[in-house]
Structures are given as structure tokens and as C-alpha cells.
Amino acid sequence: MVLKTESEWTQDVIGVLDTIDNKFPELSKFIEEIPVKPSSKSRRLPSMEEYHDSLKNLLRKYEQSHIPCK
User: Is 4 in a helix, a strand, or coil?
Assistant: First the structure.
């Protein structure tokens, strides 16, 4: 397994944000609710990987509830 660099995760985050902007612009208002501050368990900022995963989860849940099944 190849680990991604912070720069690669940043590019992935930008890709998810572009998807949200293009497919579900109404979802953009919820992005501000994703914490980008230290959690109580760790005193560090979330990594870009964690932020990416949070955005992907938000997008996945939104798609599941707002796109009709075929």
C-alpha cells in the first residue's frame, strides 16, 4: 500500500469539493460544519486525509438520501 502525501490528499479534497460544488451546491453550506480544529482526544489538527474522509462521508450520505434509486 502506497501512502499519499499531504499534497496528494489536498488534491483529493479539492476534487471532492469540486464535486460538491458542481453536483450538489446546496451541500456547500454544510462544509463549514466539518470541524477543522483539534479534537478533544488529540491536540492536533485533523490531517487532510481525515478532512477528505469527512467530506466523502458527507457527500455519500447526501447522495444516498437525495438521489432516487434506479
Answer: coil
Query: CB atoms < 10 A from the CB of 39, how many?
Result: 11
Among 7, 13, 55, which Cα is nearest to 34's? 55
DSSP letters, 8-23, are: HHHHHHHHHHHHHHHH
Of the candidates 44, 45, 27, the one whose C-alpha atom is nearest the C-alpha of residue 36 is 45
The pTM for the full model equals 0.72
Place of cell 492536533: 44
pLDDT digits (tens, 9 = 90+) for 18-58: 999 999 998 888 887 776 544 445 555 567 888 899 899 99
The alpha carbons of the chain give a radius of gyration, in whole angstroms, of: 14
C-alpha cell at 31: 462544509
